[in-house]
């Protein structure tokens, strides 16, 4: 039985089909990348799995449970953590408090939640920023706090939405290292969606490619990098942009 | 046990604020012996009452960030439950008050459930609409005295019915509620729900991704706010000994409640108290001064309105927001 | 028969409700702000008609252009003096800001004119009625309905057929993209407020012909306008038009039903309750509005 299984998932927005009959599965402990050109339906697929959208057809099965159409907080409680492309920074909660909110999912007591949150921050090497507000932090650190927050709910599957967007090459490299550590030391299954191929390739064990709402390829990164359909999909985009 | 320790734990406030609040509490305890006239006493009672309202509003409006403009309906529920039960069946305050709070809680869940499907302006207008509907019903409902209102029977000095001939008793009565409110809020802001609400306010989508049922959290906070306000309403009934829909359920009351908290600083422990400390005396002294100047009618509300606009345009986090910006921490 | 009469009266009132709601929906459409002070704009329009017709001794209908001008001025002053600053803040601030404006204008009216109810007693159309078959229609309401139609036609023409309208729509769809295209979005906001002010000012001038004039009158009508705009879909002009008529019918037919059923539970004293409930039910169960063809 697969860890996460997506079966014939379809989502259309008033006639515009964002996901068309997409099927794939992820095994426990894998790192899987989901790539595709702009408008390929990556984010929609992501949102259908975690529950922001209700799919129009198909099933999502997580650890043997049908979670199709579950609300985001329900999928989170089921063990699916996620990060966002952008953190909505507000001077309302500190980095530590953000992570505490995550820890509160399975912790009633504030002192305990704080202890757990500090552990997560320490794991990520973020002790230094614990008491700073998100607005006081650079984007790269904000994204790491977002990751820490998601880790604090103790997920078994972590879905990462464009984890490298807005980061410079050094920051990206650091993020990749961090993800590898999370995978290795916490044994969390990772599912990344990325627009930029260069980020996904070195870390993923398997890559799924979407184009025009459909899955066009799936396989190990080396294979995908030379897949004609994939190259065409990306090239097509470049031609369209006039490059 | 842990909750009680948290409620009394103010250690995350700067020392100067803790000392300040301590002195303020001493002042409040000693106030009746400072030789104020009855008008000053009435203003003080009003201040404590509105602080209580503001603290209640702060749960959903401040920490939860939901623009709630219908709190007057819960003032009404609290006040009417006490009044009607006392008039009709001679039921003592200490039975009717908890009942009023229960009714407020029940009603808040009932309308909170559909209400929190809404967001933003849809929500704000809907809170006004529900409050006006309830006011309309009370205006036309003969059982509760309709538009004429309802007068409570005079019982003399009695703790059972919480009626006193001396305002000092009322003062300590509302002071007790006020202090209980402060302790509760001190616990609340550090509670799981308190943190979850702030997360919802920052980013509801992110909150949901952390396993938070945002709608349910808001409903809970709304119910807490309603209970707070209903307690205040029950006090109004025995303090004024006369209530009508105009005085306890009017839209302006809802606005005042939200305004006090906003002006002082929403989502902070001191904010609603500061807001009430400014607006209540302003309201009272301005009102009594304007009472002698018929030609200046309406000026008091114009001044509040100007304050609201100014705060909204230039310092949406209120007076305490300015302080917090300087000290660099929110509590 | 009573019902049919109420129905027609309702439609006439509905045209007015639609006109009142028009400005609210334009402002919302362009900049996603709910103007709580909208009812106060209406109230000031009413006082303008009242004061001018009394002091100059002219027919209240003649004052309509001035009511519109007062409305436009109010809209512009509110925008440049307040709303511009509110836009930088969170939504809480925007809501409270226009709420403050509402209170300010309301009590300004109390200060200027007191809390008495006033009524225009003289005028070309005041008290006149039009008889068509078995129906007696208030002339003022008929004229009001006609002018409402004219206003909707003009506004629709501006928004859908002119260059300025195109810019307005572009701003409402995507502010950033519009400003890249060289549209001065700040000016578009101001224009929306001016248009909102004009239409509601005129509505006030018309309403003054057959309704009591008092400082608190705004609340009643702004709640109706909220219900109308919610029903028609926030930001939709067509929606506001049909929803206005629907609310008008609801508001007049409902008490009659109570009368026919001989029950006091449904009666004129709950006329407003039904409007509030309508708002509540619509936004809860169909947030896009009944018509919901525009996002």
Outline of the structure:
The complex is a heterotrimer of chains A (243), B (331) and C (295). Chain A is 39% helix and 25% strand.
Provide an overview of this structure.
The complex is a heterotrimer of chains A (243), B (331) and C (295). Chain A has nine helices and ten strands. By secondary structure, chain A is of the alpha/beta class. Chain A folds into two domains: 1-79 and 156-168 and 187-243, Rossmann fold (3-Layer(aba) Sandwich); 86-154, no CATH class. Chain A has a six-stranded mixed sheet with strand order 6-7-8-3-9-10, sandwiched between helices. Chain B has one domain. In chain B, helix 4 packs antiparallel against helix 5 (93-115). Chain B is globular and about 55 Å long. The model of chain C has no long low-confidence stretch (mean pLDDT 81). Chain C has a single domain (2-285), classed as ABC transporter involved in vitamin B12 uptake, BtuC. A two-stranded antiparallel sheet of chain C has the order 1-2. At the B-C interface, helix 6, helix 12 and helix 14 of B face helix 3, helix 4, helix 9 and helix 11 of C.
Unreliably modeled segments of chain C: none
- The CATH homologous superfamily name of the largest domain in chain A equals P-loop containing nucleotide triphosphate hydrolases
Going across the biggest sheet of chain A, name each strand in turn. Answer: 6-7-8-3-9-10
What structural category arises from helix and sheet content of chain C? mainly alpha
Tell me the span between the first and last alpha carbons of chain A: 44 Å
CATH C-level class of the largest domain in chain A is Alpha Beta
Our count of helices of chain A gives 9
Radius of gyration of chain C: 19 Å
Features of this protein?
A: 243 residues; alpha/beta; Rossmann fold; 9 helices; 39% helix; globular; C: 295 residues; mainly alpha; ABC transporter involved in vitamin B12 uptake, BtuC; two-stranded antiparallel sheet; 72% helix
Spell out the blueprint of helices and strands:
The complex is a heterotrimer of chains A (243), B (331) and C (295).
Chain A: E1 4-13, E2 16-26, E3 31-35, H1 42-50, E4 57-62, E5 65-66, H2 72-77, E6 80-83, H3 95-103, H4 110-123, H5 139-152, E7 157-161, H6 169-186, E8 189-194, H7 197-203, E9 206-211, E10 214-219, H8 221-225, H9 228-240
Chain B: H1 2-8, H2 15-30, H3 38-63, H4 72-89, H5 93-115, H6 120-140, E1 150-151, H7 167-188, H8 192-202, H9 204-209, H10 214-240, E2 242-243, H11 245-248, H12 251-264, H13 271-291, H14 299-314, H15 318-327
Antiparallel strand pairs in B: 1-2
Helix pairs in contact in B: 1-7, 3-7, 3-10, 3-12, 3-13, 4-5, 4-10, 5-10, 7-10, 8-10, 12-13, 12-15
Chain C: H1 2-31, H2 38-55, H3 64-86, H4 91-113, E1 129-132, E2 135-138, H5 139-161, H6 163-173, H7 175-180, H8 185-207, H9 217-232, H10 237-260, H11 271-285
Antiparallel strand pairs in C: 1-2
């Amino acid at each position: 039985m697969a860890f996460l299984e997506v079966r014939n998932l379809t989502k259309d927005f008033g006639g515009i089909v964002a996901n068309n009959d997409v099927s794939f599965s992820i095994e426990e402990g894998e790192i899987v990348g989901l790539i595709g050109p702009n408008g390929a339906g990556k984010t929609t697929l992501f949102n259908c799995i975690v529950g922001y959208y209700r799919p129009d057809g198909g099933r999502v099965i997580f650890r043997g449970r049908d979670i199709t159409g579950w609300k985001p907080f329900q999928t989170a409680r089921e063990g699916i953590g996620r990060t966002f492309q952008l953190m909505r920074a507000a001077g309302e909660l500190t980095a530590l408090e953000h992570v505490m909110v995550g820890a509160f999912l399975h912790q009633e007591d504030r002192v305990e939640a704080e202890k757990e949150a500090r552990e997560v921050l320490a794991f990520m090497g973020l002790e230094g920023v614990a008491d700073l507000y998100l607005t006081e932090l650079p984007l790269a650190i904000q994204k790491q706090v977002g990751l820490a927050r998601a880790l604090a709910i103790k997920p078994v599957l972590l879905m990462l939405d464009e984890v490298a967007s807005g980061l410079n090459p050094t920051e990206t490299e650091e993020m990749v290292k961090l993800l590898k550590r999370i995978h290795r030391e916490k044994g969390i299954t990772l599912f990344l969606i990325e627009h930029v191929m260069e980020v996904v390739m070195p870390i993923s064990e398997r890559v799924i490619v979407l184009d025009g709402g459909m899955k066009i390829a799936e396989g190990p990164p080396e294979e995908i990098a030379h897949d004609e359909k994939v190259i065409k999909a990306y090239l097509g985009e470049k031609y369209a942009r006039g490059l | 046990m842990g909750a009680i320790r948290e409620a009394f734990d103010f250690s995350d406030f700067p020392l100067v604020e803790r000392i300040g609040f301590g002195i303020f509490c001493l002042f409040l305890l000693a106030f009746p012996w400072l030789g104020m006239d009855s008008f000053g006493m009435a203003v003080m009672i009003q201040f404590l009452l509105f602080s209580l309202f503001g603290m209640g509003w702060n749960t959903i409006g401040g920490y939860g960030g939901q623009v709630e403009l219908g709190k007057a309906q819960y003032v009404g529920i609290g006040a009417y439950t006490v009044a009607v039960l006392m008039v009709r069946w001679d039921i003592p305050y200490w039975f009717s008050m908890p009942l009023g709070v229960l009714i407020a809680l029940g009603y808040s869940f009932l309308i909170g459930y559909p209400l929190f499907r809404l967001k933003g302006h849809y929500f704000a207008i809907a809170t006004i609409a529900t409050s006006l509907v309830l006011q309309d019903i009370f205006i036309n409902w003969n059982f509760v005295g309709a538009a004429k209102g309802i007068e409570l029977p005079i019982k003399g000095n009695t703790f059972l019915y919480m009626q006193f001939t001396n305002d000092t008793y009322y003062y300590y009565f509302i002071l007790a509620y006020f202090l209980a409110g402060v302790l509760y809020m001190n616990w609340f802001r550090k509670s799981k729900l308190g943190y979850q609400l702030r997360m919802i306010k920052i980013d509801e989508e992110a909150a949901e991704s952390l396993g938070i049922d945002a709608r349910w959290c808001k409903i809970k906070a709304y119910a807490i706010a309603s209970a707070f306000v209903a307690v205040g309403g029950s006090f109004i009934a025995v303090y004024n000994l006369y209530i009508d829909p105009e005085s306890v359920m009017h839209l302006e009351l809802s606005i005042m409640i939200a305004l006090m908290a906003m002006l002082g600083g929403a989502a902070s422990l001191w904010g609603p108290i500061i807001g009430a400390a400014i607006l209540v005396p302003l309201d009272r002294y301005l009102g009594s001064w304007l009472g002698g100047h018929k030609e200046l009618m309406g000026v008091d509300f114009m001044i509040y309105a100007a304050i609201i606009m100014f705060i909204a345009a230039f310092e949406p986090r209120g007076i305490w927001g300015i302080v917090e910006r300087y000290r660099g921490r929110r509590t | 028969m009573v019902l049919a009469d109420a129905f027609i009266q309702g439609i006439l009132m509905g045209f007015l409700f639609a006109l009142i709601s028009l400005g609210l929906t334009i402002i919302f459409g362009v900049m996603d702000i709910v103007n709580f002070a909208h009812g106060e704009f209406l109230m000031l329009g009413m006082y303008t008609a009242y004061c001018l017709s009394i002091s100059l001794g002219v027919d209240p209908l003649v004052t309509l252009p001035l009511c519109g001008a007062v409305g436009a001025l109010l809209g512009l002053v509110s925008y440049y003096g307040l709303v511009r600053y509110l836009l930088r803040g969170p939504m809480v601030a925007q809501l409270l800001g226009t709420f403050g404006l509402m209170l300010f204008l309301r009590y300004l009216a109390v200060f200027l004119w007191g809390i008495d109810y006033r009524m225009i007693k003289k005028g070309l159309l005041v008290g006149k009625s039009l008889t068509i078959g078995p129906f007696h229609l208030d002339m003022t309401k008929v004229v009001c309905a006609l002018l409402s139609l004219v206003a909707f036609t003009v506004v629709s023409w501006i928004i859908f057929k002119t260059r300025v309208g195109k810019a307005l729509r572009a701003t409402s769809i995507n502010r950033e993209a519009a400003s890249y295209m060289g549209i001065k979005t700040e000016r578009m906001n101001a224009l929306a407020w001016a248009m909102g002010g004009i239409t509601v000012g005129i509505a006030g001038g018309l309403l003054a012909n057959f309704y009591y004039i008092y400082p608190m009158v705004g609340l009643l009508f702004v709640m109706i306008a909220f219900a109308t705009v919610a029903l028609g879909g926030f930001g939709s002009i067509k929606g506001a038009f049909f929803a206005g008529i629907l609310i008008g019918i609801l508001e007049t037919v409902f008490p009659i039903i109570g009368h026919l059923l001989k029950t006091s539970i449904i009666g004129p004293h709950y006329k407003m309750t039904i409007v509030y409930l309508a708002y509540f039910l619509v936004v809860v169960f169909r947030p896009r509005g009944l018509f919901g063809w525009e996002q």
